[in-house]
Input
Amino acid sequence: MSAWPVLSWLVFFPLVACLLLPFIRGEKAVRVFTLLAGLVECALAWPLFAFDLADKGYQFVEKVPWVPAWGLNYYLGLDGISLLMVLLTVLLLPLCVLCSWTYIGKRIKEFHFCLLLMTAACVGVFVSLDFVLFYVFWEAMLVPMFLLIAVWGGPERRYASLKFFLYTLAGSTLLLVAMVAFYKAGGTFSIPELTGKTYGFNFQYWTFLAMAIAFAIKVPMFPFHTWLPAAHVEAPTAGSVLLASVLLKMGAYGFLRFCLPLTPLASQYFAPMMIAISIASILYGGFVALGQRDMKKLIAYSSVAHMGFVTMGIFIFSLRGLEGALMVMLNHGITTGALFMLVGAIYERSHSREIAENLGLGKFLPAYMFFFGLFALSSLGFPGTNSFVGEILVLIGVFAYEPWVGAAIIPGVMLGAAYMLRLGQKLAWGEPPKAQGWRDLNSREWVYFLPLAALVLYIGLAPGLTLRAMDPTLGRVLTEFRAGLARLEPNPSSAPALLAQNPQINRAALSAGPASAGVPDKE
Amino acid sequence: MPSLGLLLPELFQTLLTGVLFVQALARPRQADQPPGPAAATAWVPWAAALGVAVALWSLPARGLILWQAYQLDGLSQFFKLAVAVGLFLVTLNAQRPAGVRDDQRADYFMFIALSSLGLMLLASAVELITVYLALEISSYSLYALIPLRGKEGKAAEAGIKYILFGAVATALALYGLALVLAAQNTSYLAGLGQRPWSWGAAPLGVVGISLFLAGFFYKLALFPFHFWAPDVYDGTGNQTAAFVATMPKLGAVVVLVRIGALLGPASEVTALLAVLGALSMTFGNLAALVQQDLKRLLGYSSVAHAGYIMVGLVACSAQGLAAASFYSLVYLLMNLTAFWVICRLAEDGRNLVLDDLNGLYQRAPFLAFVLAVAAFALVGLPPTAGFMGKLFLLTSAWGRGHDWLVVVAALNTAISIYYYLNLVRHAYTREAEAAPGAAPVGGLVWGGVLAAVLLILGALPAPVFQWAEAAGLQLAR
Output
């Protein structure tokens, strides 16, 4: 534990900035102030680079009693999974301020207030090690996001924001019940302590379902995805970026942090279903994206497909799969965030997100098309870009798990190429060109695309450091998962009895179980 | 002779009532004369604030006095503090209650103070007849308050409904009291705690206590005793509704907590409480979904909240009782915050509908923020106090034989989001049809204080919760 409470600073600095914001006068001053706050937040994240890559446990831990009567602690910590997510979140804040510089023209102060609040809550979600604290941040993030969509959104913003709020909050009410049940079963709200305990199959069954609904809505997985396109299309650029890059990751993060270690047996039991839903998400998202005329909608549906890769990687329970899932999470955050910023940039010129209104940009906006091409290639998983690393890892994991499942998602990869290339082609060479007289990217826009482009190439060409940061933690998650399975299996009264009674469990256990999985681990 | 020092909050409250009574006597004979000293009531909130200090000071008071009928313990002192805080906020809110003539203002405050005195007595009463008397003291003044809003038909309807329902509920309670007395041969709660409370052992006692509780279900507006709530909120003045919606519930909760401690988690009465709680929250939330009038909406929301409080009561554990006490305090605060905004927006005393909130954000950004905090607290969304209250309730009830109730409560949260969120949506996302009128300026500071209290209590509930916990620990057996 370091003396400098770096995680508390990361969570609370944006809140402090929020409280100062009402005293700033003038639009420009507000933007500059928030930008500075974002840069300071990035600087505050600097101590995180002291992260010990070999340590698989939690680092930078802070633990203070919060409500002693209920055993609540203010308990923060960081491992390889949350490290990457926190860095991504923190990096996005200044970029979001920059990409809203001219896009947001009303209620400037409140907009930046919401942005800062969002950042604080998102960082909080990723660093909380207390279940209740996690839930507090998880829900606290809904209100600023709701306002971002409802106040600064497009014409259908009222509908979209309501749908977003109802969907996500309704899903997480059952998460609250699961949390309470875990407290009664495990005697604590602390996530690391809960992980070491054994829960009966029935308990795992119901808590897994309660948690999985909350997380599946957030991811979003196929039948629960309908809030996403509406929210994305209506949200302002910065809102879309945060939604795609950070919020969607929270669902997958929940699966990794809670479902696998806490309910291993139920995770395994439901794995075939989750895999089937993931395949459906990948194919459905791809096909629907193919038919979109609205750029934002297209990218939103592509998000559904990409997140399908993430859940697929998680629920095959191998190190390759988990690595791939986390990589896709990170890369989707970078690439899709950038794509939404690109759409926002062109919207400021054409005032339309329709593909047909933005044809033939290549000749007039070469710099814009350069970035668009780069991020589009990254989105479809072109070798050399970041998404390739994630997708190939997931594919390796899936083929090792079950070749026909791998074969089923290959069309999803091709669909990705189809819809992104179609979009890129129309934007670059579409006839008749609409872009006469539009100016190319200005220096502000260069500033916020460059870091993301650099990350695309860096992770794409040299993923080693990122993988080394996540590997020990993912190894730990897998160990916990398998230990959880093993703890239940020798017990004659619980799992084997259930397995004997229920042939479906038996099959799932045989095909994905640790003893017979046959999935080669790393090295 | 008990030491009077133990009774400081009650004595202070009596003094306040007496002073207001004398002031009310100074009213001029004819209505057309200037109101004179009877209208000078600006001092009342500050006196009530002093009452808060007194209640805080006597928080550690302990004792069993007045022939074992009047107990001073953690629970009673916690609720006396809550009543004092509530009275302070209500009087602050009702500085110029619309619909009350200037020369009636001293009477108005006198009734409120008298009712609060009854609630304080209720907090300490541990003998059924004392409980009953305290209940009546707190109710009678409300019968006079509710029809005060001039000569409107709605106000009369509200008054009549409240009195008739109240009379029936009181009669039921009295009948139940008689049955309990007949079956268990004592009216002291301490003695009743020694008796069996199962249907097999004491059928008459179970019927009696259920009927007795009905009187408090009426106060709490628990389904199926809730029918008065929306109409009364609707018909009475905004400021009076703020009082009726919050304070009497405290009295009901304290008695329910005391009686809940008598009954084990397995008793039939507890099961009845659980079922009524589930029905109450479901019905209240579903009915609130379609309301347009803000006060009716809050009326049905209070029916739902009465159901949530039952979740803590059926746990019958120290934690559960503490959680119910804590939640009732939080409920008081968040409802008063919501009413605060309503009263500021309708200085002329009219009833607001949802569309009146349109564009509130532009007219009065600060009030809109306060309203949003209140609405999200009522949903139970972190980081507000409403979330912490709900978390404690659910946690305490899990594993105590009523797990299904916890799930129902959680699902009800999902239902209730819609109408609470509607308040925020109207305030933030709709444009006002009318030109931005005069923004209400008064009372912004206190609205901000209320919102801040809700947020702080949500982030750091431990200091306040430990009082409630001390109360619960000593009650549960």
Chain A is about 70% helix and 5% strand.
